[in-house]
Amino acid sequence: MKTIKSIQELGKCILQKKEIAFIPTMGNLHDGHLALVRKARSLNKLVLVSIFVNEIQFNSAADYNSYPRTLKEDLIKLQKENVDIVFVPNKKQMNTINNFITFDLKKMQHGLCDKNRPGHFEGVISIIARFCNIIRPSYLIMGKKDYQQLFIVKKFLNEFCYPIKVLSVNTKREQSGLAMSSRNSLIAKKHLLIAPMLYQQLTYIKTNLKKMSSLSSIEKKVASELEKNGWKVEYVTIRSQKTLFIPTCNERKLVALIAAYLGKVRLIDNIEFCI
Fold first, then answer.
1. How confident is the model at residue 94 (pLDDT cuts 50, 70, 90)?
2. Topology given in CATH for the domain delimited by 182-274
3. For the whole prediction, is pTM greater than 0.85?
């Protein structure tokens, strides 16, 4: 495994490589990230993982500064997974110091994380575009936990004609059902017992939607249940898998999404289902 810090060195290493499977990460790797690596490895292509904490997608300096950084441990995990190249650039290499964002995502507003995190997805798309321009991968591997992010990245790459196939991997979960996330390490001990409730409520939606009179009735019920147990809910919503907007009456492929704070930690999760 090669660990590379400069764009120039990376360019030399991948110059003759026809197909690359790329996994962008911000580090603090867990089994969810490693599932992406294993998916990439199954393609029999060169596997390239980036580790870069992208400041321009954070909505506060405090959130950026508190993001867990575990580079030494991350590299050991990636070595064990037989990753070919790990790209670890700095802000200067990725040209994020001046915070230039040139993508207008107004057409992709869904009233989900974009509503409460202004500029977040512009920051995500900005860095994904830079990585794709540098690496020129054939495959981009992403997880389904960040569902709106996955949706927007797919749409962006398609609209801008990037010749990249996006492969999504199901959310990896703890035994309790809690979605694996780098932020889980920030959850206070007193909240650990109720953290799995997010997925439990999503499962409740999937199981009981047909029994409810409307989408809004079950959304409100779940939000109320979470708030009773100490969560601060941003949204509970049921959307179309195809458009990520409120589904039409004849749509069957749906996704339920939740974003909520548990103490100071913001958690998101989702579940896909058909009715």
1. confident
2. Pantoate--beta-alanine Ligase; Chain: A,domain 2 (3.30.1300)
3. yes
